[in-house]
Write a structure and sequence with these properties.
The strands form three sheets. Strands 3, 4, 6, 7 and 10 form a five-stranded antiparallel sheet that branches. A three-stranded antiparallel sheet has the order 5-9-8, with no helix packed on it. The radius of gyration is 20 Å and the shape is globular. It is α+β, with helices and mostly antiparallel strands and about 160 residues long. The chain has one helix and ten strands. It has one domain. The chain starts with a helix and ends in an 8-residue tail after the last strand.
Length: about 160
């Protein structure tokens, strides 16, 4: 997989995650009310009133969660999720864990040959594949979560 494709996948994945987080936050019950000033503008003398509901925004549990799994350097590993349905409706999140160093991290996510990291590919209705670079020192364990969104997020 080319570097440009990997970067595009990482950027798209992060945009999707940010969009989902913003959607969850916007439905969490928090409301900001700005009192109108002259011509509808807020002046420095006016206060900003924030109304909030006592409810924390939450992200729903993933439809599939691998839990923390060991992965060796220079290893291709296939995970079976069996979610079925349209893979264009999936949202994938991959997180690394380095128990002896950086803890839970996203270092070199998408992989960086010669330096380390992990990348995923080969997503099907039943499986997802992950590869850990041979020089990687950040991803002794990996956790994959998949959500079925119910509608395509990306159409290209």
């Amino acid at each position: 997989m080319s570097t440009k494709k990997v970067i595009a996948i990482v950027v798209l994945t992060n945009l999707i995650i940010i969009t989902l987080l913003l959607a969850f936050l916007s439905t969490a019950g928090g409301v900001m009310a700005f009192p109108p000033g002259p011509e509808g503008l807020v002046t420095p003398e006016e206060t900003v009133e924030i109304l909030a509901v006592n409810r924390k925004p939450t992200i729903p549990d993933a439809n599939w969660d691998s839990g923390w799994q060991s992965i060796n350097k220079d290893q291709n590993k296939r995970f079976r999720h069996r979610l079925r349905g349209n893979v264009n409706d999936y949202l994938v999140n991959v997180v690394c864990k380095d128990p002896g160093g950086d803890g839970i991290n996203h270092n070199f996510y998408g992989s960086n040959p010669g330096f380390g990291g992990v990348t995923w590919w080969g997503l099907t209705r039943y499986y997802i594949k992950v590869y850990r670079e041979d020089h990687d020192t950040y991803c002794d364990k990996i956790r994959i979560r998949i959500w079925k969104t119910g509608a395509p997020i990306y159409q290209g």
